[in-house]
Design a protein that fits this description.
elongated
Length: 924
């Protein structure tokens, strides 16, 4: 085996010689991906060194029968082996080979800065990543220093965490070799990680990117909370932007890594431009297609050039997700080795083919240089004619940090436990010894503390996506839910891994950020809470692998939470409660439902058929939320507000007059929350208040505020009322916002009733914006279609910007036929199956489908009349929402209708004669 192999001669088949990192870098370089150049000191060189110095017997003696749960003995074994390696002699020829390889990278008489990265021969495997177990050294300069860092990498193969992990995973310490990657340093202005499948939701159609200013070490170590971007893998549309404030970063200044304050006006800006996000996504998709597996990719941007510095398989996916992904990728043609590079290494983003400049057009942002120039580290400034530079561009080119380097960031900047050795890069991924099945739900909450916020009481033992709800609790901390589940226990605050012995089984581990050294304590914890980090930091990844609930990015968890305090961690929603609230992880107590929607009982699976058309449920009474959530439905398609407001009992304008508007909001929010938690993550479509004036008058104080109308059914109701009484509607919107933001129930959507005109929708959308409620990927806006004018104008409503419609067949029928649905004399003539009604419904469904707008119907006709359900399926309706007692019956009707439609279409296809060209070919 060679001692040195250059990237240009390495392929993924060279895993045994160059380890996981080396094999992936060589493979990516061979297909033209923008990988910084370098070479690998092979595993053969490592084994040569071990044999030359007689270290094998020492390794065997120190690791045989070692109790890895005894931290003291584990540390002693590590110290003995590492000391032997660091004091050993590198064979003369091997030493000369490393020196020669480094010197061949010298250009124009200037020695390069390199990263020396450990690359174990057992790492980056699909079933065990081993990433993060060994050390990486950044900004190494000089041939002699390069040789020394290679030896340091060899020694790191026997860090306590590495010995612990190999023992847990039954890898032979003497057979796992270590190669050292020597790679040209990218002095990154921005850097981070990218997953080609969203690691939390495990959605195969999404790419998740995290990035921050400066060197990427701050992202993978979790030292700062990065920006997060979620991109649609097919359209490359940016669907989510979570921009985090970054007060400091790690950069190279005067040949050393230093913590620098980010300039104040840059701290809260989006770190990557839209164009860079899209280009990263395109490269991520190419890399995934090449390997045929979902990838965890490290990237960097320097002088507006994009580099890929690492890629490895994602090891935290559920088996069925990995299998589905590999099947989907199996038919995709990968980039062939030796092919002409589609993106030459270091090509400026502004010049790359299929650039995001084209994809984003005028929206592409100008580059933001995150730090000031120094003679040592400044990327060369791009030349641009002064007259072409806008004031905004000039501002963006200003340095992003203050000029004075700091040895360490303050606690306010970096949190407790900030890295003491910024040149040492900890990895991010560890394999699970025994991966637990955890519901993968992303319910990101704002990483801000909401102290003293009371949690509305839920129904006893209420099901919340596999979580049993009980009692009350006070929200004391929020963060990013990184590994879902519920954990409760006594707080143990750790300043460093040296305090791991404090964590007993069932405790909640609280720290600034975990590193691989924390793993033994993490395994004992019931939950993990960190100050910093994002979805791809060490704590997040390892927690997902181990099935331990984890919240990251709380900012001040180590100060808000106190040693010995009892807390409950709802990591699915990123919320920490004071005390034991009675929340419990139901999935630990109940048999698996075989992939059924959370809250649905497994017993339904063999009885109720699966339908392509979603079946929602209509609800109004809080007491029925828990029971109904167990039905085999896809969510709540119509949550009526009137029963909840009726329970409050007082007219909202009366409460406003008495200065009790907030009381109305809090009471309504508490009731809505019960439904949202019961059905989470299934959607709950809340229809805003549709009281008619005669119904409002029945509330306490209603007579003072309600006019007497001769025909309330067609009177002052729905959207028209919101516009004339914005102060009342604002209370309702505040309740919805509270449930979504304070309680973290992002599955709660809005539906507007009795919409008559386009102008009403526009006015309501402005009112939503005024309340800070913006149209996002997880906040949908629906309208009811129950007025004939809405049927005629449905194309305009779709163009105005809505996510869904629900056809109110009861009101629509009465308004089309001119029959009061409550009139007993005309009851026989009230029929949703009337041709006029069906034609109206068909138009709505057709136009919505053309505009990719969800189209539902809320009414009992589909459950009562099988032929009506069949007709709706033929039209292509998206979903149906029915009363709870009709859910199973409707599913059977719809399943039968779907089968009939399929058989009809199949019969039509098979009845057609073969084309003449085809018959001719057969006869020949």
């Amino acid at each position: 085996m060679k001692n040195i192999m250059w990237f240009s001669e390495i392929r993924k088949s060279n895993l045994a010689e160059v380890g996981g990192k080396g094999a992936n870098l060589g493979e990516m370089a061979s297909v033209g991906l923008p990988v910084p150049g370098g070479f690998v000191v092979t595993s053969g060189a490592y084994f040569l060194f071990i044999k030359h110095n007689g270290i094998e017997p020492v390794i065997k003696e120190m690791t045989s029968d070692l109790n890895i749960e005894d931290n003291d003995k584990l540390n002693v074994a590590s110290d003995v082996i590492k000391t032997k390696i660091l004091s050993g002699e590198i064979p003369p020829q091997l030493r000369a080979d490393i020196l020669s390889a480094y010197r061949s990278m010298i250009k124009n008489g200037r020695e390069p800065y390199v990263a020396v990265r450990s690359s174990a021969t057992a790492e980056d495997l699909p079933e065990a990543s081993f990433a993060g177990q060994q050390s990486t050294f950044l900004n190494v300069k000089g041939a002699e220093d390069c040789v020394q860092m290679v030896k340091e990498c060899w020694a790191s193969l026997f860090e306590p965490r590495s010995i612990y992990y190999r023992t847990e995973n039954k890898f032979d310490h003497l057979k796992v070799g270590l190669a050292a990657v020597v790679q040209e340093m990218v002095q990154s202005e921005k850097a981070g990680v990218m997953f080609t499948i969203d690691p939390m939701t495990q959605d195969m159609s999404k790419i998740s990117i995290e990035g921050a200013y400066g060197l990427g070490e701050v992202v993978v170590s979790g030292s700062v909370t990065p920006d997060r971007y979620v991109v649609d893998k097919n359209t490359f549309k940016i669907e989510i932007k979570d921009v985090a404030k970054q007060t400091w970063m790690l950069v190279k200044v005067n040949e050393k890594n230093a913590h620098m304050n980010v300039r104040e006006d840059m701290q809260s800006r989006q770190k990557l431009t839209d164009s860079q996000v899209v280009e990263l996504s395109r490269l991520g998709k190419k890399i995934e297609q090449h390997y045929g597996k979902p990838q965890d990719i490290e990237w960097a941007v320097a002088d507006n050039r994009l580099f890929i510095v690492q890629s490895r398989p994602i090891t935290t996916l559920r088996k069925e997700v990995m299998a589905d992904s590999e099947r989907a990728l199996a038919g995709v043609q990968s980039v062939e080795a030796g092919a002409k590079p589609s993106v030459p290494p270091g090509t400026p983003l502004m010049q790359q083919p299929q650039g995001a400049q084209q994809a984003q057009g005028a929206q592409a942002q100008q580059r933001q240089q995150p730090y000031a120039a120094t003679s040592q580290a400044q990327p060369q400034q791009r030349q641009q004619a002064p007259q072409q530079q806008s004031a905004q561009q000039q501002q963006q080119r200003q340095p992003a940090y203050q000029a004075t380097p700091q040895a360490q960031p303050s606690q306010q900047q970096a949190g407790q436990g900030a890295p003491q050795q910024p040149q040492r890069q900890q990895g991010t991924q560890l394999p699970a010894v025994q991966q637990k099945q955890v519901t993968n739900i992303a319910a990101s909450a704002p990483a801000a503390v909401a102290t003293g916020a009371p949690v509305a009481s839920a129904a006893p033992k209420q099901e919340e996506r596999g979580v049993k709800m009980a009692g009350e609790g006070k929200i004391i901390l929020r963060g990013l839910g990184a590994a879902p589940g519920i954990g409760k226990g006594t707080v143990k605050v750790l300043a460093s891994p040296k305090e791991m012995n404090k964590v007993m089984k069932g405790d909640v581990l609280v720290t600034d950020m975990t590193t691989p050294d924390f793993v033994p304590a993490m395994k004992r914890a019931s939950a993990i809470v960190t100050n910093s980090g994002g979805m791809t930091c060490h704590a997040a990844i390892v927690s997902r692998e181990m099935g331990i609930p984890c919240i990251v990015g709380t900012k001040n968890g180590t100060t808000v939470l106190h040693e010995g305090q009892m807390i409950t961690v709802d990591a699915s929603r990123g919320i920490v409660y004071d005390g034991d609230t009675g929340l419990a992880d139901a999935k630990k107590e109940e048999p698996a439902s075989g992939g059924a929607s959370p809250g649905a009982q497994a017993a339904y699976a063999p009885v109720v058929p699966v339908t392509g058309t979603k079946i929602y449920v209509n609800l109004a009474e809080v007491d029925l939320a828990e029971k109904t959530s167990k039905l085999p439905c896809d969510g709540v398609g119509l949550l009526r507000a009137e029963f909840m407001i009726g329970d409050i009992g007082e007219h909202p304008k009366k409460m406003i007059k008495e200065g009790r508007g907030q009381e109305f909001t809090d009471k309504l929010a508490g009731k809505i929350r019960v439904f949202a938690t019961a059905f989470f993550p299934r959607p709950v479509v809340y229809r805003t208040t549709d009281f008619k004036t005669n119904e409002y008058r029945n509330l306490s104080g209603g007579e003072e505020f309600e006019p007497a109308e001769s025909n309330p059914m067609m009177g002052w109701r729905g959207c028209a009322r919101y516009i004339t009484e914005p102060e009342v509607f604002a209370l309702e919107l505040a309740a919805i916002k509270k449930v979504r933001e304070e309680f973290g129930m992002k599955n709660l959507w809005i539906m507007l009733p009795f919409v008559r005109r386009i102008g009403e929708l526009r006015a309501i959308k402005e009112m939503l914006k005024a309340q800070g409620m913006h149209h996002t990927r997880d906040f949908k806006l629906w309208i009811m279609v129950e007025v004939p004018s809405t049927v005629f104008l449905i194309d305009q409503f779709c163009a105005e910007g809505i996510d869904g419609v629900s056809i109110g067949s009861n009101d629509l029928t009465q308004l089309i036929l001119g029959i009061d649905r409550d009139n007993a004399t005309l009851a026989e003539g009230f029929d949703e199956r009337n041709d006029a009604v069906l034609r109206a419904i068909e138009r709505v469904v057709k136009v919505c489908n053309e505009n990719k707008v969800t189209c539902s119907i809320c009414g009992q006709a589909p459950s009562v009349y099988p032929e009506f359900a069949e007709r709706l399926v033929e039209m292509g309706i998206t979903s149906m929402s029915v009363n709870p007692d009709a859910v199973e019956r409707t599913k059977r009707n719809v399943a039968s209708a779907e089968m009939k439609v399929l058989l009809k279409r199949l019969a039509k296809l098979t009845a057609e004669p073969a084309a003449p060209e085809y018959r001719s070919n057969v006869e020949d």
